[in-house]
Amino acid sequence: MARAALRLVELPRWPIKRMLRLEEALVRHEPGNWCLITALPPQQPTVVVGLGGKPERLLDAGELQKRPVPVIRRFTGGGTVVVNGGVVVTSLIVDKGCEACAPFPRDIMKWTEGIYRDAFSQMIDSTQFALRDHDYVFQDRKVGGNAQSIVKDKWIHHTSFLWDFDEADMRYLTLPEKRPEYRGDRSHDDFLAKLGALSGVDAGEGALKLASGLFDSLGAAFDVERGSLSELEAVEARHSSGGWRPVDFPPSGG
């Protein structure tokens, strides 16, 4: 039996709102399997909250009042992340009928763990790369956060890889009440690691290297081909909303 096709597209530095809008359009409305990769553009930091996240428990209202930045809610689940030009975002959008893995949250994450470990093998010591709880880690420090959504015919696995970040921006985030056992009470400074420092390349070059690695690692399960930017721009033209919505936090006037 012929393997399913998957189109891999390296996006020029698309902002997070545009990326999220495209993701929801592909997972809910468009056919086929996709892998998208972009290094976010240099920009004002944006705080992205998961679908079920409670900003009042996850974010430091005082810090946001001192240094206001946009807060948005994405259409997928998962945790809270501060994104800027040091983040590489990847998305795997796959038909439920694909034989690569079962369409259930833990099955998807265990499968993607192997895919990303292989894809990173030319940049870092990938034997130290693993899935811990819902995070990708290098040794015991988080390098990537994940979000997922499983709908009628497809699933999406969205990852924010921390290539670089400003430690001050982590002050927007509180220590979550519910957190992985491996994290314990560690602060963000002790809990997070920068893939830029580990790999020796910046986010732009890292996105290119990761795309090349994913082209190979996904080839074990799919007939991988390079998709075109024009295809995705046509998808955008058909679906001009969705993917995220603004969050009023701290509440206006509050």
From TrEMBL:
One Pfam match: LplA-B_cat
InterPro entries, alphabetized: aa-tRNA-synth_II/BPL/LPL (IPR045864), BPL_LPL_catalytic (IPR004143), Lipoate-ligase_2_inactive (IPR053264)
Domain BPL/LPL catalytic: 30-222
Domain of life: Eukaryota
PANTHER family named among the record's database cross-references: BIOTIN/LIPOATE A/B PROTEIN LIGASE FAMILY, BPL_LPL CATALYTIC DOMAIN-CONTAINING PROTEIN
Protein name as annotated: BPL/LPL catalytic domain-containing protein
